Amino acid sequence: MSKSTSTVAELLQNNADNLTRAERQLSQSILVNYPVSGLGSITAVAKNAGVSTPTVARLVKKIGFSGFPEFQAALRNEVEATISDPIAKHDTWAGQAPNEHIVNKFTDAVIENIRHSLGQLDIETFDQTCALLADTKRSLFIVGGRITRSLADYFFLHMQVLREDVTHIQAISNAWPHYLLDMKKDDVIVIFDVRRYETSTLRLAEMAAEAGAKIILFTDQWHSPIAKLADHTFSVKIVVPSAWDSSVTTMLVVETIIADVQTRTWPKTRQRMEELEVMFDRTKFFRKFT
């Protein structure tokens, strides 16, 4: 994977097996409060990690940078990307856009996002996440933000059919304490949070973590601050030639998880589906052609 398509965090994670003990210690230090932890002077970065300055210089070269300045420039670019508003996103693409139709440009970007994100997907994390979601002994809570609430709503609709005890937390933060009141240790909360990361969603995640809940996070390639609290994180590429980010890759992962959970819970899920169909027939919810 090229440096240009990877975040610094991904480069560190992809090269983990090639690092020395001191370099791994430094890498972990940078990832703990990423990306801010890598923005100090080379001396400060080394001191915070408890390693030598030469170790910092060796690590940044090992993951593909010419030196510490280029490493920090990449981090600064990532910080800028995470706080970009729709106008800035549009202007970035408009200035780089090749002379081809938007259908081709957009589709190519989405396909690259999917390829990159699936290449980074950890199968063990996927399986553990699906096992948590299928465990009906745990209450399940789902929440999204200003943009991601549509993803949260879609996920909630399907999980509510697959299993019992599923709650869709409203995006209005002043209603959250009522939901947290019922959250118990080892319950599961699924959070959708992409750039520009919402402060109120972070506060909710902090309170859920304090309650002992397991946090499953869907975020972007730069990682929401909630990642440091999450038990399982799915980070996907979302950049497309638009003023808005794409949800296609996130939706792909979400639908794959739904399919897996459905398989795990099928005997009970089938019964719930049959009961649901009876209610649909009684209320004449769907049009019949026979």
UniProtKB/TrEMBL annotation:
All residue ranges annotated as the HTH rpiR-type domain in the record: 6-82
Pfam families given in the database record: HTH_6 (PF01418), SIS (PF01380)
A GO BP entry: carbohydrate derivative metabolic process
Database matches in SUPFAM superfamilies: Homeodomain-like, SIS domain
Highest taxon listed in the record's lineage: Bacteria
PROSITE patterns the UniProt entry points to: HTH_RPIR (PS51071), SIS (PS51464)
Residues of the SIS domain: 129-267
Keyword line: DNA-binding, Transcription, Transcription regulation
Identification of the protein by name: RpiR family transcriptional regulator
CDD domains assigned: SIS_RpiR
GO MF annotation terms: carbohydrate derivative binding; DNA binding; DNA-binding transcription factor activity
Organism: Maritalea mobilis
